[in-house]
Write a structure and sequence with these properties.
7% strand; 4-stranded antiparallel sheet; 696 residues; single chain
Length: 696
């Protein structure tokens, strides 16, 4: 009896110890999590690979006198033509800007040919690399530059564009977190049908998000990992989405075990023992897929890998330690009003997924072929995806910098309003300047600052920014100036380098992700055939991108697709989509080990895990769908493709295609393992070997 009391006391103490350790961890890591937003870097150059020409230009510019410059363009416009009063207003405002800020050189007005527009390029090196100082400079110029009475005044240029993007990313984390929490709350209330239970996984997910932010800050400080606003936002969604998925599986299994075990501690231990391998494997596939991004050339993508992995691991640890401890301490009453009593049986209900599985197995070949044809047809929509999106089309609601850019493109068709930047060695500066002026597609080339052995040259193309004609000019400049040791950069060149790096990264990372996920699945399922069925989620990726091609431009009016959409959506859809396949296939293997025939094993697995998979898929799709509410086109596209892909994977691939393929392959699905050679004698499940979780 003394030994029993000792064991009981230890069981009661363990949850309290776990909760105490988590509280201590939050106290220590909380301040670091608060600094996560401060380390985010959102300049275009922060996304670029180190080897790109435009990256070298940006780094050399930092070494020139005054350091990095903030370049603006003040645009004065009146339909019908500017008046003398308008020109005086422009002159007075430029003088006021010069008096209030330390400008590099005297601003010179450039009138349009039709006399309706006057632009003043303005540059300052005073803010340097300090984002707050740059934003304050831009806001200060905007306060001075005001129109009225038919005169419009817009402040554009690269500096204004960066400020407008910073303002979006400053509010992104808080907006995204609150919106995601709201969506997950509503879904958990509907799934659990309890006024209290939903609070537990939601609170634990919030704790995991704080730990993930602290880990992201540590990765940046210790290893120099690049953290952008995009990777920070995706990490938040990933923690809440994946964490809630793990919680659904654990809570559902725990509810079952409470009917078999009198003590909540014993029930939770059995639940973790039963679903732990599936949770560990699913998180492992996501972490491995994200870690493959380290091979990316783009700083933004390579940084998203470890940052996202930190989020997934934080969710895993929190949901397998803190969540069970809190549930055990709260006891059965947390499930009120649907409290699972010890020794009771769940209310018998007709399983929707059992009916779906039965209908699929009547004609499995026809269902499998039909599903494959449907996914292939949807994938044809990728042919409608337009080219890389321009910076001017990257916002869903156009800020002032974008309207200024469009005004300049319309009123100055003979030359670009956004210069290319050429950096030449001092000894070759004259030769580079002459070659630049003689290059086809160049309207003007003007020398600028010199220092640290380099000279800056501003080159104005005849073509508008980010057009095929300007791209040809950039390529001609790079080919002609490379022998002189010069680099060609600037905003337009940065977009070209981004697209080239993304194309390279897709070729390298896609096979890496597939190989990493396949190896993990082979280890879990002990088969070479079954993992191939799960990796078929690649077809879902193509179909989701195809649906995006039918929606982005025709319906939403987007002017292009983000260069990183293909790679990032692939990584997330493959890694996250395989999660649900693991839940299903792991249960199917368990039934096969017990001697069930292939069709019976497939139907049992679908019946018992279908509810969890459906709930988890809806939650994950909804969390990524929150990205579509943000004002950045790239994030809207990424959220849409992942949400659609997760739903396709949940309700089509896992429910119908994997099930029918399993029925057709029979025991060959487990080749070359022992399950593929001979059936095992059926053994009844014991209380230590409970069936997988399901939602009734």
């Amino acid at each position: 009896m003394g030994a029993v009391r000792t064991r009981t006391g230890r069981r009661r103490a363990v949850p309290w110890v776990v909760v105490g350790l988590w509280i201590a961890a939050l106290v220590l890591l909380g301040p670091l999590a608060g600094r996560f937003a401060d380390i985010q870097q959102n300049r275009a150059v922060d996304y670029l690979p180190d080897s790109a020409d435009s990256t070298q230009v940006a780094r050399i510019q930092d070494e020139l006198p005054g350091g990095e410059s903030t370049d603006l363009v003040l645009v004065y416009h009146r339909d019908g033509g500017l008046t003398d009063a308008d020109r005086r207003t422009a002159t007075e405002q430029i003088a006021e800007v010069r008096a209030a800020h330390d400008l590099a050189g005297e601003p010179r007005g450039v009138p349009s040919k039709d006399g309706t527009t006057l632009m003043y390029p303005v540059s300052s090196t005073q803010p340097g690399q300090d984002e707050e100082a740059r934003d304050a400079f831009v806001d200060g110029v905007r306060e001075i530059a005001e129109g009225g009475g038919g005169l419009t005044v817009e402040v554009g240029g690269p500096g204004a564009l960066n400020t407008d993007m910073n303002k979006v990313f400053e509010t992104l984390d808080a907006t995204l977190l609150l919106a995601t929490l709201a969506v997950v709350t509503v879904l958990l209330v509907l799934i659990y049908r309890s006024p209290f239970l939903w609070l537990v996984p939601l609170a634990v997910a919030g704790v995991a998000a704080a730990v993930a932010m602290a880990a992201g800050y540590g990765l940046h400080e210790l290893f120099g990992v690049t953290v952008t606003g995009q990777s920070g936002g995706v990490m938040t969604v990933l923690v809440l989405g994946a964490g809630t998925d793990y919680a659904l599986l654990i809570v559902s299994r725990y509810r079952e075990e409470l009917r078999r075990h009198e003590r909540p501690y014993d029930a939770m231990r059995a639940a973790l023992r039963g679903c732990g391998p599936a949770v560990l494997a699913s998180s492992g596939t996501v972490a491995a897929g994200l870690l493959c991004l380290l091979a990316a050339d783009l700083n933004s993508s390579s940084g998203m890998g470890p940052v996202g992995m930190a989020g997934v691991l934080a969710a895993l640890v929190a949901m397998t330690t803190l969540l069970p401890a809190v549930l055990v301490l709260l006891g059965r009453r947390v499930f009120w009003p649907l409290v699972p009593a010890f020794g009771s049986e769940p209310k018998a209900r007709r399983s929707l997924f059992a009916a779906m599985g039965t209908s699929a197995t009547r004609r499995p070949a026809a269902v499998l072929v039909g599903g494959g044809v449907l996914l292939g047809a949807l994938a044809l929509g990728t042919l409608n995806l337009s080219g890389s999106i321009k910076q001017e089309d990257s916002f869903t609601e156009r800020p002032e910098s974008i309207t200024a850019m469009r005004t300049l493109a319309r009123e100055y068709p003979e030359r670009s309003s956004r210069p290319l930047t050429v950096i030449a060695p001092d000894g070759a500066a004259e030769a580079v300047l002459a070659r630049a002026r003689a290059t086809d597609g160049v309207a003007e080339a003007v020398p600028g600052r010199s220092g640290s052995g380099w000279t800056e040259i501003a080159v104005f193309a005849t073509a508008p920014p980010e057009t095929p004609a300007e791209t040809r000019t950039v390529e001609a400049l790079r080919a002609g100036l490379d022998p002189e040791g010069a680099y060609v950069g600037g905003p337009s060149a940065q977009q070209i380098d981004l697209a080239a790096a993304e194309a390279r990264d897709r070729k390298v990372i896609v096979p890496l992700v597939l190989a990493a996920v396949f190896v993990i699945l082979v280890g879990l399922l002990r088969s070479l055939v079954a993992p191939l069925l799960l990796v078929a989620v690649v077809a879902v990726w193509g179909a989701a991108l195809g649906i995006g091609g039918l929606v982005f431009e025709p319906v939403l009016g987007f002017g292009g697709t983000d260069p990183g959409l293909g790679l990032l959506s692939f990584v997330f859809l493959v890694a996250l989509g395989v999660d649900y396949g693991i839940f299903l296939m792991h249960r199917m293997r368990e039934e096969s080990v017990r001697g069930a025939e292939p069709e019976a094993a497939a139907l049992t697995a679908l019946r018992t895990t279908g509810g969890v998979i459906a709930s988890a898929g809806v939650v994950l799709a909804a969390t990524f769908a929150v990205l579509t509410t943000l004002p950045m086109v790239g994030l809207v596209e990424l959220g849409f493709v992942i949400a659609v892909g997760v739903l396709l994977d949940t309700f089509l691939v896992r429910t119908y295609l994997v099930t029918t393929a399993s029925v057709l392959l029979k025991r060959r699905m487990w080749w070359p393992g022992g399950l593929s050679r001979a059936p095992r004698r059926a053994t009844p499940a014991t209380r230590d070997e409970p069936v997988s979780a399901h939602v009734t």
